[in-house]
Amino acid sequence: MPELVDRTDSFRSLRAGAQRVLPLLPLRNMVIFPGQVVTLDVGRAKSILAIQKAAGRDGLLVVATQKDADQLEPERDAIYPIGTLVQILLSRGVIALLTGLAAADGESFRVTVRGLERVRLTRIWQKPTYRAAVKLVPEAKVRAEDPECAAALLALERGVREYAQTGRPALFEGDELPEELLAHPERVADLLAARLPLSVKEKQELLEEVNIYARLVRVYEHLNREIAVARLDQRVQERVRQQMERSQRDYYLREQLRAIQQELGESEGTLPGDSEIEAYRRKINEAGLPEEAARKANQELERLSRMPLMSPEAAVIRTYLDWLISIPWQKRSEDRLDLALAREILEADHYGLEEAKRRILEFLAVRRLAGTGVSKGPILCLVGPPGVGKTSLARSIARALGRSFVRFSLGGLRDEAEIRGHRRTYVGALPGRIVQALKQAGTINPVLLLDEIDKMGMDVRGDPASALLEVLDPEQNRAFSDHYLEVPVNLSEVLFITTANYLGGIPRPLLDRLEVIEISGYTEDEKFQIGRRYLWPKQMRENGLSEDTVSLADSALRDIIRKYTREAGVRQLERQLGKLCRRIALHLVEAGPSQKKLVIGRSHLKKYLGAPLFRFGEVEGEDRVGVATGLAYTEVGGDILSIEVVVAPGMGRFVLTGKLGEVMRESAQAAHTYIRSQREALQITADFPDRMDIHIHVPEGSIPKDGPSAGITMATALASALTGRPVRRDVAMTGEITLRGRVLPVGGLKEKLLAAARAGIKTVLIPADNEKDLSLIPASVRRKLDIRLVREMHEVLAAALLPAAPATGGPEASSPAQGEEEKTGEVQPADEGQAGQGTEQKPGTKEKAAKAG
Asked: Whole-prediction pTM value?
């Protein structure tokens, strides 16, 4: 049949440029090029019928590739429009016989075809079998002698030879392009495209390329790419082979040497690496490891001695042994038991903080009496606002005890492995932060500061707070288990100190293991002493100033504290003093040597620090209706809190705004109900509450607020708005309210009273049940404030509200109930450390600046 193809009517008409309808065979995952002979496995019914029709006529068939190989019966637009005219290379009788058998048995059969010409499918029919109207694709004829074509053929010849040298299957016999092909450039391009390992898409693009020279160039690009990939593959395989041979050779030679030494009776060899093994063995003996740790170290050392030096596992074992040896198992620093010297160091570093200092001196006294028999150290938690000296106090404690000091922050920690370490199965595994701190300290009994313990997180990688339960439990940390070391580590001699701004952020099981020492905000006198003794000399040294060139008057320092800072700690004070020193340094340099010593007084502050940031000793604003001042306890200390109430005609709606928490909303509802119950006594109009809308707002709406201690403040603001009686602007209050008007105790009173004193408040109303806490308030604060104890809500209203008649609204215009009373003591911080009233705030609330009513 091949010799008859030129004489068929269909082929002659196609050569003449006519269009013919021929059977169509869709191909999956393959492309057939002109001149290529391919054997096909045919199994689809329509494909069998197409071959049967073609074999029954002149043996001509059109093949075209499917765009999606998974489709059994592709649609017209799912077949590429450029295909190949092929000729079936079997006799009609055999084809008919095979087709009949396949049709009868439902099996596939093979048929061999040869590609003839590129054709374009102008139309496709799908029933009863695939047929296509096709026309030959005209090609621009080129001659092998053309310069461009000759250069492309020469490059392809070289490429075929290079490809054969890469070890890939040869493209042609003899690894050369056959001579007879060089006279037909189009056949060279098609046969190379067919035989190169290209994707179906790339082959289809070459089939659709009608410019023969462009086709040669693209085939050459693909050939070069395959050569580069093959060479890279050769290099990788050669590298792997050499590495395997070297490892096997080293192992074989080491085993031979070991066997020879055994025959000679030499137990201690001199193999490469044996000196390393002996060095590790000596270090293990000198490190004083506990029995279990020493046994584990020797097991790993024995494994290392049997491994090739370059084995990846050997590097892991070396790192593990290095960590095991570097832990100071038996190294400890002797505690400095001189109480007088320890007290002197603590006093020299910090002013105040008496409770924390007393606890450290107690620890030293117990160690002095009991000796080394008592090794268990306290686990302290210093709780207070930022800037009060918690971290620096821990450093001073270590200096007073004569111990090493290590600090690491837990803020934002979310991975349990940071505490317990990673298991050695992970690449780059390391021990946890606790073991790393021991190595850094160099002793087994350092002072270890766990900073910001209230700011840990939790996610899918575990809960670090749960991992700390074992670390901070004196009954369990004698045998702390690190996942990396896999041996117990004794942490009972470590003095753990943790710091937090807010007790509510510490999980209850962890808090139960801590000895809490609350550090409240500083009073003005304490800030003055800290500024004079520590901060001003420090800033002078850091900015190159001396007492011979500048001095700061006491009045100026107090003005800086009062008018340029408003904080619980002293960080802002230190920044302002640093700013002052920098401005003075600039002035001295500009003035030159003729400048005399500067004495900074009050009048100089505006020049160097600018206008005051705060007003001190002045009651802000005026007596207003519906505005009451409350006291709040936040993570950064105490603060004042204004509560505003507006009453308007309406339908009895009650609106609360200001990002209030659930407890604070319930407290507002209780205040509203109490005022309703006292409508007649307060002489409130009959429109209340059904024809009045009430809106309670707490300013600074972006800051979350919660807690019940704003109850009496909201009730006072409500009563003022409904009766038209202004609230005294110099009165602040805190306390929880009940439906019957009782005033219940709250927490955080020391911080609240400090905030009231800073803000210039004159009178503070507190629950009578908080009288027990007054002994902890500094005398300087008690002298500034008129602290009144109240039990019922009517006492609060009598002290806070002015008469309804228009009045100037000062304390001198108040009723007799608002006159001066005997000033009482102070309030201690809440044990719970919650906002307003410790137990009411949700323990998970950790917003940095969250205010409590």
From this structure: 0.54
